[in-house]
From TrEMBL, chain A:
Keywords, sorted A to Z: Ubl conjugation pathway
Pfam families linked: Skp1 (PF01466), Skp1_POZ (PF03931)
Name assigned to this protein: SKP1-like protein 1A
SMART domains associated with the record: Skp1 (SM00512)
Highest rank taxon of the organism: Eukaryota
Family as reported in the entry's similarity comment: Belongs to the SKP1 family.
UniProt xrefs under PANTHER family: SKP1
SUPFAM superfamilies per UniProt: POZ domain, Skp1 dimerisation domain-like
Organism: Gossypium hirsutum
Annotated SKP1 component POZ domain residues: 7-66
Keyword Lipid biosynthesis in annotation: no
UniProtKB/TrEMBL annotation, chain B:
Lineage: Eukaryota, Viridiplantae, Streptophyta, Embryophyta, Tracheophyta
Species of origin: Gossypium hirsutum (Upland cotton)
Name of this protein: F-box/kelch-repeat protein At3g23880
Pfam family, one: FBA_1
UniProt cross-references to SMART domains, sorted A to Z: FBOX
F-box domain location: 12-52
InterPro entries tied to this protein: F-box-assoc_dom_typ1 (IPR006527), F-box-assoc_interact_dom (IPR017451), F-box-like_dom_sf (IPR036047), F-box_dom (IPR001810), SCF_F-box_component (IPR050796)
Family annotation (CDD domains): F-box_AtFBW1-like (cd22157)
Length: 246, 388
């Protein structure tokens, strides 16, 4: 035959049968291999994929095949948006899609779904990652402390709202930054990180933690006072008054 | 299929975790290592670390998150990473640097910085450092130690062996006929002496690493009926095969008049090289680009730059993703970006006595490396010699 309307039959784990165009089905390297090395008229059994998931996957494959072949008038940006919406599903479905994309060997779908999970992990603390993905913490308390210490470098708070870089801190410097009350504030001053634990506790704190650079002895700066002023829309302005201690 | 809880680790095969982890930045991976023991061992694995590196390099070429490593300082030296965007935004301040102000940066490769210390006059100390994960290694003493007349060093990666290598070429004395060559391998943690190429070192510039090869300018003294002339060329050392190779310069640059100067810089996202030719009065410089790496016919004189005002000619450090040039101005060592065609200048306000910039990719290299007694012993050897 060889015509573009060759159809392939796929049977899922829950006995649903899908009839798909060959061009769409062979986006899966697994299906392609089975089709090319087996009997072209028989039904291909996709053991580990359910009907619901396969249906979604076929939507994805169809969209990508049509866009690549020019059958659909869709720009790369629009396809990118379509993909972004495609992965806006509940976590169970997302994980099922990943497993299916892996077993059916659909590289672009695996890439897309894994990137989605990676984006869910970025910026989260370990406890949050465990909660999001329901992972059991198998560290003992001591072991967890040890691994956090070993990977201290991963936990520095740099960047984001409320980060201020003070170029030089001399005696009696008044520095200020604006931040929203939800974030932690990080003040980086000439190779030191002076970190605020939480905004709400600021007014009561007499001193703040000072992190010294490991190899150079630096003069620790102690906060003398912090005043805060509400500048509206949930932002506060913090005034740091530093005094140098020799 | 029955519905189940999204119990992450129970039904995902390892390869899927690795696929997800490859897409994470280094700091996220640090946090992931604290999630569970199994995640920790998946990440702290040399095979994963090198897949992560190649995945991130691929990402860098397709996305816009090119990073530059910047070293600069007025009173104290500072290190930071900047995004290659409009404002050259600071991506991260690097608090950890295992050295003081005596160091020069040889180069960066896959997230590792290679540093050279000038403190001990007869021995050059080399350090490899991953500033994000805060790990560094002091290299053992080279076999050949002496105060050389000329020295050039290059740092790079051998993908076949998954090994990081340092090439050191020295010329002991002015009248010496040959240069001396040594190669360090991180995997074997030792230096070995190599047979030298028949070319001399043109300058003390550090080598430029591109396409798994380090490059520098070399020359050959040619005897023309009693009078000597210097024929210049680019020499490369291939880190995969451990062999020297010659790359011809554009014809015009092969017999350079003495007052002119040339140096190599990387081009095209580290896939080719460019040569900067400073004219004899240092009033202008020409930028020659090798459009197709290794193909001599593709040398093209892309731009000519005049001076920036009355200052001497700035040093060209490299190209940005948008084609702009990164320049280090002479007096103030300000970092500027100059559009070579429109001559528009962007000053970044990065000023300091010693400013150094290079391309940078984050990685976990050295994470799995146990800094054992052998490595710290390397440092002790240096201290011993200094005390004698």
């Amino acid at each position: 035959m060889g015509s573009t309307s060759t159809k392939i039959k796929l049977r899922t784990s829950d006995q649903k049968v899908f009839e798909v165009e060959k061009a769409v089905a062979v986006q899966s390297q697994t299906i392609k291999y089975i089709y090319e090395n087996g009997c072209p008229d028989s039904v291909i059994h996709v053991h580990s994929v359910s009907g619901d998931i396969l249906s979604k996957i076929l939507d994805y494959c169809k969209k990508h095949v049509n866009s690549a072949a020019g059958k659909e008038d869709i720009s790369p940006e629009e396809l990118y948006e379509w993909d972004a919406n495609f992965v806006k599903v509940d976590q169970n479905t997302l994980f099922d899609l990943i497993l299916a994309a892996n077993c059916l060997k659909i590289e672009s779908l695996l890439d897309l779904t894994c990137q989605t999970v990676a984006n869910m992990i970025k910026g989260k603390r370990p406890e949050e990652i465990r909660t999001t993905f329901n992972i059991k913490n198998d560290y003992t308390i001591e072991a967890e402390e040890a691994v956090r210490r070993e990977n201290k470098w991963a936990f520095d708070m740099l960047g984001g709202v409320g980060t201020m870089v003070i170029e030089e801190l001399a005696d009696d410097t008044m520095s200020k930054c604006v931040t929203n009350t939800k974030s932690r504030v990080c003040v980086i001053a000439a190779n030191q990180i002076v970190m605020m634990r939480s905004i709400s506790k600021l007014a009561n704190k007499k001193s703040i933690d000072v992190y010294k650079q490991p190899q150079n002895p630096t003069t620790p700066r102690i906060k003398e006072s912090v005043k805060q002023r509400n500048v509206g829309t949930g932002f506060i302005e913090l005034f740091f008054h530093f005094k140098c201690k020799m | 299929m029955m519905s189940k809880l999204a119990m992450f680790p129970y039904y995902f095969p390892e390869e899927i975790f690795l696929e997800i982890f490859c897409k994470l930045p280094v700091k996220s991976l640090g946090k992931c290592m604290c999630v569970s023991k199994s995640w920790n061992s998946l990440i702290k694995n040399p095979y994963f670390i090198s897949s992560h590196v190649s995945h991130q390099s691929k990402l860098r070429r397709t996305n816009d998150n090119n990073l530059f490593f910047v070293m600069t300082g007025r009173h104290e030296v500072e290190y930071s990473l900047h995004s290659d965007d409009q404002e050259f935004r600071k991506y991260a301040q690097l608090e950890y640097m295992p050295f003081d102000n005596h160091h020069s940066i040889v180069g960066a490769c896959n997230g590792l910085l290679c540093l050279m210390d000038f403190q001990f006059s007869f021995d050059s100390i080399f350090i490899l450092c991953n500033p994000i994960i805060r790990k560094s290694i002091t290299l053992p003493k080279p076999c050949l130690s002496s105060l050389p007349y000329k020295i050039s060093v290059g740092f790079g990666f051998d993908s076949a062996q998954n090994d990081y290598k340092l090439l050191k070429i020295t010329k002991k004395g002015v009248l010496d006929k040959y240069v001396e060559v040594e190669l360090y391998s991180l995997k074997r943690n030792c230096w070995k002496i190599l047979a030298p190429p028949k070319y001399d070192l043109y300058s003390d510039d550090f080598m430029v690493y591109v396409n798994e090869t380090v490059h520098w300018i070399a020359y050959e003294r040619v005897n023309n009926e009693g009078s000597y002339s210097c024929k210049l060329l680019i020499l490369g050392f291939d880190m995969r095969d451990d062999v020297f190779k010659e790359i011809m310069l554009p014809e015009r640059l092969r017999n350079l008049p003495h007052q002119s100067e040339i140096y190599v810089i990387p081009y095209d996202e580290l896939s080719s090289i460019a040569v900067i030719e400073l004219g004899s009065l240092h009033a202008e410089c020409d930028i020659w680009v090798m459009k197709k790496y290794g193909v001599v016919e593709t040398w093209t004189k892309m731009y000519s730059l005049g001076k920036l005002g009355t200052e001497p000619m700035p040093r060209v450090l490299g190209f940005r993703k948008n084609g702009d040039l990164m320049l280090r101005t002479y007096d103030n060592l300000r970092l500027v970006s100059r559009d070579p065609e429109s001559h528009e200048i962007d000053y970044f306000g990065i000023q300091g006595r010693r400013t150094y910039v290079c391309n940078y990719t984050e990685s976990l290299v050295l994470l799995d490396r146990v800094i054992d007694g052998a490595m710290t012993e390397n440092r002790a050897n240096y201290a011993d010699k200094a005390n004698r």
